[in-house]
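Data availability (excerpt). The following record was deposited with the supplementary files.
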Amino acid sequence: MRRFGRTLVAAALATTVVTGTAGWASGTAQTPVTGPPPGAAEWRADRSLGRELPDPASASPGGVAAFFASLTDDQRRSLAARHPLVVGNLDGVPPALRYEANARSLGAAAVGRRILAHDPRGRGQLAEVFGDLEHAPHIAVVVPGSDIDAGTFNRTSAMARSLYEATGRRTAVVAWAGYTTPLGIGLDATTGALAEAGARRLTRFTQGLAANGAATPALFCHSYGSVVCGLAASGAAARDIVVLGSPGMRADSAAGLGTDARIWAAKSPADWISKVPNVELLGLGHGHDPADPAFGARRVPADDVPGHTGYFAPGTTSLRTFAAIAQGEAR
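Predicted structure:
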């Protein structure tokens, strides 16, 4: 009975404390963005090629990739010009064509950038590439935590750029803010609903990379993003999954994630996430601490990390280790 009581207290504390990257503001319930990209109805009605186009709601990334491989360059560019939001957000479309489509939909905001996704619905979602995604021998994907959207995307791109520079620009790094994140403190941050929706989107994203022949990525998952990665682990195409400042992955152990990917965990002594109880009760909380040796993850040193958002800070041991993992050099 005492143990059950302590668990209830811990769950209540988790409801009060758990948040993502930015903070201690009151929470606002979010509805996840799901379904096909904007403009899907017009895409489905398009018969310019004399045949049906792949349904964005049901076509697999592999099927989408095969369809675009069957087209001429002029046909691909014509579709990107007529349906930039579909082509720019549809997993399986060749990356270079997605850049072109998103440059059309974003205009001057995309000049000089490789925007791999731009979904304006809700608070907005973005994905940006640093490096040559199609030819790099290694790929890393940074998955952020709470309070990230189109307006705060620079926080995620800064982490991705830091990792890109730490690899000597030899690894392509994707800043992937491709899901609806929680805002501040609230039930969204302590439950798995947004993470479940995000996991489906992350899984399709990695499958789209694979369908275009890109290297299998390492996922770097910060805070609530580690919940997303934990739920996506069994279906995502990933060679490594690295969690940092994690409140839990909704699994009791690394083996329980159901993936062959190597699991790594970093947690700084200065990270306030250490004060969050690692419990899961009645849907609240995210379970065992991945940085606990009993979880079975490989350790990423983080003693010099200055806090919850400092894992990618230049000069830190964590960033050096991340770069080694991203390049396939860490064991």
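Summary of structural features: The chain is about 35% helix and 10% strand.
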